[in-house]
Design brief:
Blueprint (H helix, E strand, L loop, with lengths): L1 E5 L3 H11 L5 E5 L3 H20 L5 H9 L1 E4 L1 H4 L5 E4 L5 H14 L5 E4 L6 H4 L7 E5 L9 E6 L5 H13 L3 E6 L6 H17 L5 H12 L5 H8 L1 H15 L8 H8 L12 E3 L5 E3 L4
Parallel strand pairs: 1-2, 1-4, 2-3, 4-5, 5-6, 7-8
Antiparallel strand pairs: 6-7, 9-10
Helix pairs in contact: 1-2, 8-10, 8-11
The structure holds acetoacetyl-coenzyme A.
The site of acetoacetyl-coenzyme A has 18 residues, from helix 8 and helix 10.
Length: about 290
């Protein structure tokens, strides 16, 4: 099966790896510029080189996986895809335009899926001449086992079932979700991260204290503030705003500290600074300890 992954950023790279690691799958990794697509593949190759160094994978295994990923432009390499997983910028206009363009490029039986983390699948599919389904991966997409499979109002049952089957084939566990802002995981997880930002803003504890408390007190693998940095604070803020705008419920009010940090370009790991500063030697320092 050939899968077109649209967007060669963090999620696109992880999704490309999740498919390419499985026999019988090849990936067209696309972005709006050829060099961005190639940059995404370069990062994938570098990541795997580290795993070879550590002895986790052999060079032969890595060569096979990376050979299954072709970077390029969707108009050049997606015509014969069987499945599209769109992981473009989290913006309704961008997603709608991307699918309309893909409609003209892809063969008639290609399934269209979006990795949106909170936007309406029904709205994304508006004006597209085939159904759109949600196929929501979690970061790091090649390691995390869950895929939320989201049925929009107009998504036929057979498309939902096909995506569940493909999810299982690549070693994931699908959970079917009806369309609703934030689906299941982000409706719970992102308000938790937002609450941690409020706790920091109110001075209840410091950054390390909050993260340590949740790691040791709730057995979370990462603390909420380091997880926010890892996901991207801009993504967390965008999801809070979607939850609020869809429901107008004050319980989804974004923490002002989170908004201030995003406005200042402090987005977390990807910008080198969020609740932590990410040092060149791979260590990180909480910003309130600088
Ligand atoms: N093959 C073989 N070995 C591999 C490998 C691969 N493909 N990838 C990694 N490894 C190795 C690593 O090198 C590492 O080896 P060492 O221990 O020797 O260094 C080992 O396997 C363990 O690697 P992990 O990457 O699994 O590391 P970890 O156990 O520390 O887990 C983590 C990392 C998975 C990120 C974990 O911290 C975690 O689960 N964190 C929470 C993540 C989370 O909540 N994600 C959801 C975010 S929300 C989201 O994504 C939705 C959204 O829409 C915003």
């Amino acid at each position: 099966m050939k899968v077109g992954v649209i967007g060669a950023g963090t999620m696109g790279q992880g999704i490309a790896k999740a498919f390419a690691q499985v026999d019988g799958y090849s990936v067209a990794l696309c972005d709006i510029k050829q060099e961005w697509a190639e940059g995404g593949k370069d990062k994938i190759v570098k990541g795997y080189a580290k795993l070879v160094e550590k002895g986790k994978l052999t060079q032969e295994q890595v060569d096979k996986i990376t050979a299954a990923i072709t970077p390029g432009l969707k108009e050049d390499i997606c015509a014969d895809c069987d499945l599209i997983v769109e992981a473009a910028f989290e913006d309704m206009n961008v997603k709608q335009t991307t699918f309309k363009e893909l409609d003209a490029i892809c063969k008639a039986d290609c399934i269209f899926a979006s990795n949106t983390s909170s936007l309406s699948i029904t709205e994304i599919g508006k004006g597209v001449n085939r159904p759109v389904v949600g196929m929501h991966f979690f970061n790091p997409a090649d390691r995390m086992k869950l895929i939320e499979v989201i049925a929009g109002v107009n998504t036929p049952v057979d498309i939902v079932e096909k995506i569940k089957k493909i999810s299982e084939e690549i070693g994931k566990t699908p959970v079917q979700v009806n369309e609703a802002a934030g689906f299941v995981v982000n409706r719970i997880l992102i308000p938790l991260i937002n609450e941690a930002a409020f706790i920091k803003m109110e001075g209840v504890s410091d950054i390390e204290g909050i993260d340590t408390a949740m790691k040791l007190g709730a057995n979370h693998p990462m603390g909420p503030l380091e997880l926010g940095d890892y996901i991207g604070l801009d993504i967390c803020l965008a999801i809070m705003d979607v939850l609020y705008n869809e429901t107008k419920d004050g319980k989804y009010r974004a923490c002002p500290l989170l908004r201030k940090m995003v406005r200042g370009g402090n987005l977390g790991v990807k910008s080198g600074k969020g609740f932590y500063v990410y040092n060149a030697d791979k260590t990180k320092t909480p910003v309130d300890k600088l």
